[in-house]
Request: fold
Amino acid sequence: MSTTVKSRTPPRSSAGGADDDDSGQEMMFLNGSDTGADGSHRQNFRPPHNRGPASGGVSSEGAATSGGPSLLPSGAATSAGHNKSSVVNDAVLHVPESLPERQKWDNKLQFMLSAIGYSVGLGNVWRFPYLVQQNGGGAFLIPFFVMLLLEGIPLFLVELALGQKLRQGSLGAWNLIHPWLGGLGIASTLVAFLVGLYYNVIITWCFYYLFNSFQSPLPWSTCPIDSNGTAVKECTAATETAYFWYRTALDISPSVDQPEGIKWWMALCLLLSWIIVYFITMRGIQSSGKVVYFTALFPYAVLTIFFIRGITLKGAGAGLAHMLQPQMHKLLDPTVWLDAATQVFYSFNIGFGSLIAFGSYNPPRNNCVKDTLILSVCNAATAVYASVVIFAILGFKAVRSYDLCVNHDKDLIGQRFPGLLVNGSLTDEAYANFLQYRDESKDLGLRGCNLEEIMNESVEGTGLVFIVFTQAIVELPAAPFWAILFFLMLLALGVGSQIGTLEGVISTVFDIQIVRGARKEVVSAAVCIVSYLIGLLFVTGSGEYWVKIFDSFAGTTGLIFIALLESIAVMYIYGHRKFSQDILQMTGHMPGPYWQITWRFVGPVLISVLLVASIIYRSFDKPAYYAWNAQEGKSFLTPYPQWVLIVGGLLATLSVLPIPAVFLLRRFQFLRLDTDINKGVIRRNETTISTKQMMTDVDEYIDTAIEEEDEEEAVGRLEMTASSNRSFSISHRDEH
Reply:
């Protein structure tokens, strides 16, 4: 049981001393005020001096600790192990008997590597190179870096600083800003959960390919032989790598309407994926923080090895020239800028709540602005670096394909016109002249090879990784070695991002009062088991189609909407001045005009444009997917059936439904304010004048509820209504 004290009497004077001074400084930090405990105004933003153990203190997170700065004046603290409560700024501070200490990063490097591993993911390898190829080559880097400066970096700092200031996960942070915004934390957690479901399936595919890479020759290098001693027809109609992907690995069904059962080999790989993710995340950052040294650094080592090998291959120069050659006219196309903004948005993983959780594990005085700039540069540089490596390898593949095509045509010409041969072969000049001047070239079935056309064949996502790049690996000497390295790199990238995504989910679940008492290993196990059972949908015959459905509906428009509301909530409900003051207190530097303009105006406008463009695109462009046709060995664009569109609509709605639901429930008092959701402390932060009516409504509701509590038990709820015009008071209420 715990006790609650509430009083509106003036505060008693307490004995002065170092403890009182530090306590005042800590309270100043929590309330975002520069007024000390003695009423004097301070301009010192340094953390309090370290002191010896102080029994019965309360940390800035509201947790009972055995040492550190105390929130209570020396006369108000009780002995350790007893229930404690006080009134801060005319609000009840309720401290349960035992509160878990919030986890912290072991060191700064661990945080940086975790954030890099989270934000630098598979999209940097299979999405960004495709966008560069499709949107003007080197010219695409211009809108990409513009959107990085105007959208990505400012929003990244908002989430990171919010978590560091409020010391809570996504759910707790938005409840602290205002109870009506609690749905934002739930919505971002739901999106992270849905994305984590299918993201781990991609890791599953990487495991399957990794296991099959320990063979020589690689199993996707040749077509299998049927019972008649000939190559399988489906493989000859497609390519060796396409056949291995669609038939051997996925055993894909012809449409989303035909699931064709669970593929046991993929189900086992999926189980392995979730087991590994569980053991990494089962103790939060205490366990995952050790793994990031591998998941964050290993991909860079592999990329560097591939870069050194790639630039020495024939055709690498052609691939890099194709990537970097700018097509400036593309900049006049609005879709190029939308693609750049979308790529920045998703590559920073904004809106999932994981960045808020990451920031909450940092020290209160950590320089989050500096961290944001470093992480943003790493993210962008990695995307460009990965593109250089990919295009070098693809250039090698394109030139090799071009050479094979030319040799095929030369053989046909030599067989039909042997007089054109010189020393038994056709020269390149004779081949070019024949294609240009001889009408017979149309009747011989010549392919008419063109290197530029081969280079322009664009593909993204799974097609790039599991079909195109695997085909390029086959052409390399010691192909199994390169395949093992490549899929280990993809696994490191995927697991690093999955750790961050799941940390956002688990930290939110663990912040709920009914769950907080459980061991984190149990909570993590429950999340992983549920995720695995749902994920079995993705290892059926139609599993790849379902991955694309979840990717298209669960984590797109809803995520943009969440990010827009987050930006508005921080800047216009929490208040941009208050947020800037928080940055000043944490870093010692007030955010300048760049931050103010992008936070308050440019960021919300850009996200709004993205949201409107996404809605318009989905309204006029009927969703479709590529269904595999085994007879022709090709994928054909097929409209989704009506029931899939209904499921997709439900997924998109589910991700944003908690936002209006929680708002309505709490606005009209259908749902009592859950004051125990944030580790025993809800600190109402100062808000703008425009939200004063919202604050008053909730204040009246909570005050009434407290007055009606049983005085004998004195079991109250915690609420901090930090109003700038209220005095600081701490006292006890008489028990009857």
Remarks:
- The beta strands are 57-58, 64-65, 84-88, 91-95, 624-629, 634-639, 683-684, 720-721.
- The longest helix spans residues 368-416.
- The longest strand covers residues 624-629.
- DSSP finds 28 helices and eight strands in the chain.
